[in-house]
Amino acid sequence: MERDVALKLVEEQLTEHRYQHTLGVMETAISLARRYGADEKKAETAAIFHDYAKFRPKEEMKEIIMTQGFPQDLLSFNAELWHAPAGTYLVEKEAGIKDREILDAIRYHTSGRPGMGLLEKIIYLADYIEPGRHFPGVEEVRGMAKENLDKALIQSVKNTILFLMKKNQTVYPETFHTYNDLIQNGR
Ligand code: DGI
Ligand code: FE
Ligand code: FE
Ligand code: FE
């Protein structure tokens, strides 16, 4: 899909702040794709649509998870996790995106998963380090992202888990599984 067409579709779904975040993820994802040899066009499209469902009503996202074959355990964890799988479904249905790699990058951009593909890693990381993100440790991960994709990804998953634990929040098991898989198989 043309970049301008995709951006128009997404802009309608998001707040101005979230749209600016999306533009940051897009630029970062394209640059990571170039650096690590992924398909730049797919990185662009996945980045543009990654938060497509972010502001859908919780009830709608819940309904999608219940009826469209997603893991039901998502519903007993933080609703912040729901926009990723719900987004996959809605982006396919409403924007006509059919590419499995792009849809998977959207689906796993919040929790990750064991055995993440290159595009999934790039979108997860771009979401974490885009220029609009300002939190402790982000600069360190930006540096790592220039050298070693897996190393940067491990650091961002680890930071996310620690951040959630510091706030006494639950951690979705898939997020731990992502961390363990990267430690065992990453570098
Ligand atoms: O949508 P974004 O804000 O750009 O970023 P995101 O989709 O990566 O994360 C959305 C929120 O989900 C963020 O506030 C942290 C939270 N989150 C990420 N992983 C987990 C999680 N929340 C829980 N409970 N468990 C997780 O494993
Ligand atoms: Fe998100
Ligand atoms: Fe993220
Ligand atoms: Fe995001």
Automatic annotation (TrEMBL):
Which SUPFAM superfamilies does the UniProt entry name for this protein? Answer: HD-domain/PDEase-like
* Reaction catalysed by this enzyme: P(1),P(4)-bis(5'-adenosyl) tetraphosphate + H2O = 2 ADP + 2 H(+)
Show the Pfam families listed in the entry: HD
Q: Hydrolase as a keyword?
A: yes
HD domain: residues covered: 18-132
| GO-annotated molecular function | bis(5'-nucleosyl)-tetraphosphatase (symmetrical) activity; metal ion binding; nucleotide binding
Q: What class of enzyme is it?
A: hydrolase
Q: Could you tell me the EC number(s) of this protein?
A: 3.6.1.41
Q: Which domain of life is it from?
A: Bacteria
| Keyword terms | Hydrolase, Iron, Metal-binding, Nucleotide-binding
Q: Does the keyword RNA-binding apply?
A: no
Q: Which PANTHER family match?
A: BIS(5'-NUCLEOSYL)-TETRAPHOSPHATASE, SYMMETRICAL (PTHR35795:SF1), SLR1885 PROTEIN (PTHR35795)
Q: NCBIfam families under this entry?
A: bis(5'-nucleosyl)-tetraphosphatase (symmetrical) YqeK, HDIG
The protein here is known as bis(5'-nucleosyl)-tetraphosphatase (symmetrical)
Annotated source species:
Neobacillus rhizophilus
